[in-house]
Structures are given as structure tokens and as C-alpha cells.
Amino acid sequence: WKDWEKQGIVVDTDTADDTEHARKSSVIKDGGTYKMWYAGYDGSNYRILYATSTDGESWNKQGIVVDIGGTYDSVDAMYPNVIKDGATYKMWYVGNDGADYRILYATSGDGIAWTKQGIALEKGGVYESTSVGLPMVMLDDGTYKMWYIGNDGNFRIMYATSPDGIV
């Protein structure tokens, strides 16, 4: 862990969509292109932004790909985790409707135009009475495995599995 060599900023807060924050990225390498989805904050709301790179160091911002305005993400859409499953990009992200934080699910054929699918994980478990968030998902031998944050006044790392990544 001591041998990491810091390389500096790769995505800065320099556009209207991320003037205040650029955080919680999800990066995959798809062919010869690195693709990044991240939470951009403009001082009022979080939205999910997209950037591409050929080397993983110099990034070209593409703008907002998941905007606010849905039933469960009317205030914020943030903290994405993206995987590519066959030809389909799958995203789990945190939505905020002004009252609750939930883990939502969206799909895309190109990683840019996303179709919101609704709630993937709702708060309400023993250690998640306040909220759930920060999903990290992987597909392992046909099972979707999610590590996420549960909050009941204390934040804990939780674990869930799903045969389809939705239920």
C-alpha cells in the first residue's frame, strides 16, 4: 500500500455540471477506451456525468448522462457503479427524492443514454433504517453481489446478492 505513486487530478471541478464536486467514480476499460461515470455537483444537485480516456490519465468530459427528475432521484442522482454485462451497461446509483436515499438501477446500450429501471435496493433492514447507498456491484459466476452502505445512525458496510441485479 505504501508503493502507490500519486499521479494528480484527472477530473477537475471545471464545468457547470461539476463546479463544486467531482466524486465517486466508476471506471471500466471497454476495448481500448476507459469509461468513467462520476457524481458531479453544481452547488445545488448531484448528477451522473461521463468521461472517456484512451490512457486512463487524460479524460474528455462528455456531460450529464443520468439527470435528476425521476420519482426516486428528483433531488440527486449520484455515486454510480457501472459494469458491462455482454452488450448491456448496468448502473447502480444513489437516488435522493428529498426524503430518502435509495439504490436505483439503470441500463444502457452505449453507456451514455440510460433508461432508469427503478429501485434496486430500498432502505428498511435492521441496520438501514435511515438510508442505503454507495453501491459496489460485481457479477460473479452468475450472481450479482453488492456491497453497500447501510445507515441507522451508524454507517456500516452491508452485502446483498441477486440472481438478476434487480431483485
Question: How would you sum up this structure, described in words?
Answer:
Helices cover 0% and strands 57% of the residues. It has no helices and eleven strands. The strands form three sheets. The protein has a four-stranded antiparallel sheet, with no helix packed on it. A four-stranded antiparallel sheet has the order 5-6-7-8, with no helix packed on it. A three-stranded antiparallel sheet has the order 9-10-11, with no helix packed on it. It is mainly β and 167 residues long. The radius of gyration is 16 Å and the shape is globular.
List key phrases describing it.
globular, single chain, 11 strands, four-stranded antiparallel beta sheet, 167 residues, mainly beta
* Unreliable residue stretches: none
Class computed from helices, strands and strand pairing: mainly beta
Range of strand content:
over 45%
**Overall body shape:** globular
Distance between the amino and carboxyl termini: 36 Å
List the secondary-structure elements in sequence, H or E. EEEEEEEEEEE
What is the gist of this entry?
With 167 residues, the chain is mainly β. The protein has strands at 21-30, 33-41, 46-53, 60-66, 76-85, 88-96, 101-108, 114-121, 131-140, 143-151, 155-162. The strands form three sheets. The chain has a four-stranded antiparallel beta sheet with strand order 1-2-3-4, with no helix packed on it. The chain has a four-stranded antiparallel beta sheet with strand order 5-6-7-8, with no helix packed on it.
